[in-house]
């Protein structure tokens, strides 16, 4: 409730950065769902370290990895309500607010890491950040971080041809595009929180999943999946979001330093992602517990064709502007 009276030091006034010290820092709670040693975990920790250095401890980023504080189901709500200040969800999970974020799930839309980076740097990506839906929920989009291409895995048999997917059940992150992807392949799906996926695979609630190599590795999915094919059929990437009111309440000088740290951490994440995914791929192959099938271009093309119905169904939802705009960036 707003206070009345003419007190010029009302609580609405911004605090000055002098009020914060290394002993009494301004705390930014940053929650995410992957392991601490994942691409996102490492980039988040590096961001926290940079903020500490740049603000001389006046701002402390408390990173809560591995769904410790909030999982898939509640991290966005926690950001909207200000219980957490910063999150870095896989953008698919923003479908709750704006279905266009499912651009990332459109099969074989992105051709390379460079293509993805061009999109991150594009006006199209900025448009997603400038949406009414984010503003209405007091959320500000800050940066894009890559993870990598997703690959299908399962426990029944190698997945090479479209017909190999028939009758299997897969875990999805969120949204109807991923559901439609499996439908197009004659498979079923269930939305399961990332933190519960290992158990779901272990108990046979679902037969398979789709992950970048690094998530497959750092979540130890290799313990509960027998077959992995390098299908490279979709992306898993992140965006960093802050609670807008919280962000705007920060003293400007400190906010500028946090912004600087985020720009550096973003560059770090961009350099790290492909490298960590490659390392994880080598590790998965060397374990001997997962049969890895390396897909040919022809085999990928057959999957791409089988997944065309996803475009027919979702072009209007994702918007032609976004889909065609992303395709044009490949050239
Ligand atoms: C997933 O649920 O598979 C991903 O969102 C996990 C992540 O954040 O990388």
TrEMBL record:
Gene3D superfamilies on file: Bacterial extracellular solute-binding protein, family 7 (3.40.190.170)
InterPro entries membership: DctP_fam (IPR018389), TRAP_DctP (IPR004682), TRAP_DctP_sf (IPR038404)
Keyword terms, alphabetized: Signal, Transport
NCBIfam families: dctP (TIGR00787), TRAP_S1 (NF037995)
PANTHER family: C4-DICARBOXYLATE-BINDING PROTEIN DCTB (PTHR33376:SF7), PTHR33376
Family: Belongs to the bacterial solute-binding protein 7 family.
Protein name: TRAP transporter substrate-binding protein
Protein's organism: Ureibacillus suwonensis
